[in-house]
Amino acid sequence: MAAIDGLPPLREVIAAHGLAAKKSLGQNFLLDLNLTAKIARAAGDLSGADVLEVGPGPGGLTRGLLAEGARRVLAVEKDSRCLPALAEVAAAYPGRLEVLEGDALAVDALAHLTPPVKVVANLPYNVGTELLIRWMTPAVWPPFWQSLTLMFQKEVAERIVARPGSKAYGRLALMVQWRADARIVMTLPPEAFTPPPKISSAVVQIVALPAPRHPADPAVLERVVAMAFNQRRKMLRASLKGLAPDLEDRLRAAGIEPTARAEEIGLEAFCALARGLGR
Ligand code: SAM
Q1: What is the CB < 6 Å shell around ligand 1?
Q2: pLDDT tens-digit profile of 55-83?
Q3: Both ends of the chain: CA-CA distance in Å?
Q4: Sequence spans of domains, the chain
Q5: Domain 218-278 belongs to what architecture?
């Protein structure tokens, strides 16, 4: 394995610091630094950006980000056992790595970041979707981040990029694609990780649009989409019952047949329906 920096290989780091992987923290580590550098490159030019990394663990992706020229990395890690290993990385890149110990769902990372910000993370699976939803639903748009380059279980990645008519299409696809471009840039087999998870993973690249693709009130759109997909096999005139007394007219006004099912309806029509329903 070609070295991307002068630091010891990750297997040695893990052995030296006793970082046996904990399942409860979603710890599946990437030990191939060429692979972590490749993930860092998928995030585009990092030289002018602060990078927020959630869950650096022993520092494989962190080292990839720094070797690929990130201006600064802010890494938020819950497992205090990883901090000494990360301190060694920080020492090798003076002034470019800040580590915050804590739960990424609770710490205020924003206070430590200077725009432009890119988020790059091999996410702990137990908090990955929750973080994505938070990053996609800020109080104001555009959000604090320019792009999200995130590792997910492959099945979750497919739900994020799904198109109408597919089984994976639903709330997550609509929530992300309403205000961002999303694509899968890399697929990784279980063996890429130590220990290997049961399923494959994929890296999704999400780039924030300056404004939503179609106008709609975020709360109304979220409510309509949630109701529609909660009973995805039902016709919309049934799954959305109760939203408005003249629901069928409103569906038709948005160009939607009342007998259609949620998974047949594209983003633009959902936005038109949300606008027609108002607050
Ligand atoms: N980035 C490393 C890599 O690619 O090898 C580790 C990735 S591992 C899938 C997930 C990491 O997230 C672990 O280091 C774990 O301790 C950390 N983690 C789990 N839950 C967390 C949370 N709520 N906040 C911050 N870090 C968390």
Answers
A1: 25-30, 54-57, 60-61, 76-79, 82, 103-105, 122, 124, 127
A2: 999 999 999 999 999 999 999 999 999 99
A3: 57
A4: 2-208, 218-278
A5: Orthogonal Bundle (1.10)
